[in-house]
Amino acid sequence: MTEALRIVLAGGSGQIGTLLARHFHRSGHQVVVIARSVQSAPWRVIAWDGTTLGDWTGELERAEVLINLAGRSVNCRYTPANRITIKESRVQSTLALGRAIAHLVHPPRLWMNASTATIYRHALDRPMDEDTGEIGGNEQNCPSSWRFSIDVATNWEEAFFSTVTARTRKIALRSAMTMSPDPGGIFAELLRLVRLGLGGTAGSGAQFVSWIHEADFIRSIEYLMTHEEIKGPVNLAAPSPLPNREFMRALRQAWGTRVGLPAPRPVLELGALFLRTETELILKSRRVVPGRLLREGFEFQFSTWPEAARNLVERWRGRYGA
User: Where are the beta strands (DSSP E) in the chain?
Assistant: First the structure.
């Protein structure tokens, strides 16, 4: 893209939002972040509460692209209070953006709304793409926390697609885990376990891990921006999900260690309780593939995890040393 665009990132103060804002800003685009807390940044940051209309709605006028990433982090215990906040923060912010767009004279040409690859069922048997993938929640012995996550995802997408935006193309981003050497992200946490000698197989190790390198995440967003024929749900995931045991082995090899203490399920449950999080993030099998991106001709820079892990480790070491 050579033309400078006006790009609005709602809920864009988190890791993924910062990743996109930084890239688009460096590429010469006009970036506006709408966030609950206003902090100093190289781009403009506007306040909102994620629910009610306000001055922030004017930032959407004549924007080429709106990307909504708003939502409370799921890295917490699924207490009744947290469940309400997790769900409402996603649904209400999406509905608020829909109401704002309905009142605009020149609405965004494209609205991409965050979703999640967790929307698909626990899959060990076959890959899940947008056309043949099965929405989860009805699996036998499916834990209540997994059903909750799928309920959040389906309600999130329903709020998004139910909003009438005749002049705005809409894409739901069913994203896998985005791997980046930035602090605070999932890759940094996984690498920390490896560095401590704890990066072994989690649970049975048979559960699949879906992932996407940050470079391909950004490139896929740009690809969707320029291919106006694409709309609806799109899986943002590398084409080669792999079992947890292989995933962690490749990360250990990239770091240069062969030792990784395994974590049986009871240990994971205890650790999740201590860390105030949920084991779903580790134990649910996400075998998600990017059917639509591949069909439309998108080419991944990092299509396999070993090469992606080596690149990420090298960049992490370049920043922080050994």
Answer: 6-10, 30-35, 44-47, 65-68, 110-114, 169-175, 177-179, 208-209, 211-213, 232-236, 242-243
